[in-house]
């Protein structure tokens, strides 16, 4: 691994090698913390968070523990997000977006998750819109954006979000379920009598 390679004497090769250490360490933080966010088993999740913290400490050494360093700030943000410290995560990730001239789609997504968890759904939707612009191929960003729009009862916006997907994506279970919820939500907003099925569907959308 580049991260464990002995540092060479000062030359072009050693400069290049050092330049690879920071992104390599950050990649490991991102990999472990990102996996922790998706993990449902608490023991496995805790193990992934510990791995992310270990890689974060290595990264901190590479950048002289400079707390304002963008890669380190990002690493701290996603570790906090994985731990459920949403206010801390949001503060750090928003700073990353502000100071980074070209944030990645993933950076926008993680910031959106933190914002949504702290009740700022409108800002979260904005960050996801930017995540989609940065990488239009990521289905998960469309799904999360539509879920938040459904939670805000903005059925037309949720529909527009999903309409940007290719036709084959509409058969993906997550997407087709959201489309059903949008249809139910639109129907219920114009009817005075709700069936139990309709209410259950809308309640499910609001919890997403």
Give short descriptive properties of this protein.
208 residues, mainly alpha, 75% helix
Describe this structure in words.
It is a single chain. Helix 8 runs antiparallel to helix 9 (173-190). 75% of the residues lie in helices and 0% in strands. The chain is built from ten helices and no strands. Mean pLDDT is 86; it is low at 4-16. By secondary structure, the chain is mainly α.
Blueprint (SSEs and pairs):
Elements: H1 12-38, H2 42-62, H3 70-83, H4 86-99, H5 105-117, H6 121-134, H7 139-151, H8 155-163, H9 173-190, H10 196-207
Helix pairs in contact: 1-2, 1-3, 2-3, 3-4, 4-5, 5-6, 6-7, 7-8, 7-9, 8-9, 9-10
Rg, Å, rounded: 20 Å
Low-confidence stretches: 4-16
Strand percent estimate: under 5%
**Roughly what percent helix?**
over 70%
In this structure, how is the largest beta sheet organized? none
Could you give a short description of this structure?
The chain has ten helices and no strands.
């Amino acid at each position: 691994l580049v991260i464990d390679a002995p540092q060479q004497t000062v030359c072009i090769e050693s400069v290049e090698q050092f330049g690879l250490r920071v992104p390599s360490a950050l990649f490991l933080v991102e990999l472990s913390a990102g996996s922790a966010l998706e993990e449902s088993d608490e023991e496995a999740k805790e193990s992934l968070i510990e791995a992310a913290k270990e890689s974060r400490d290595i990264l901190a050494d590479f950048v002289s523990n400079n707390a304002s360093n963008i890669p380190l700030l990002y690493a701290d943000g996603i570790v906090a997000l994985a731990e459920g410290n949403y206010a801390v995560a949001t503060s750090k990730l928003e700073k990353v977006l502000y100071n980074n001239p070209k944030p990645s789609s993933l950076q926008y997504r993680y910031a959106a998750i933190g914002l949504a968890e702290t009740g700022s759904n409108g800002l979260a939707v904005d960050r996801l819109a930017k995540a989609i612009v940065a990488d239009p191929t990521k289905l998960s960003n469309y799904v999360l954006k539509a879920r938040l729009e459904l939670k805000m009862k903005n059925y037309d916006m949720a529909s527009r979000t999903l309409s940007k997907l290719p036709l084959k994506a509409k058969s993906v279970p997550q997407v087709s379920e959201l489309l059903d919820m949008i249809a139910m939500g639109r129907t219920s907003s114009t009817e005075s009598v709700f069936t139990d099925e309709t209410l259950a569907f809308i309640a499910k959308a609001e919890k997403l």
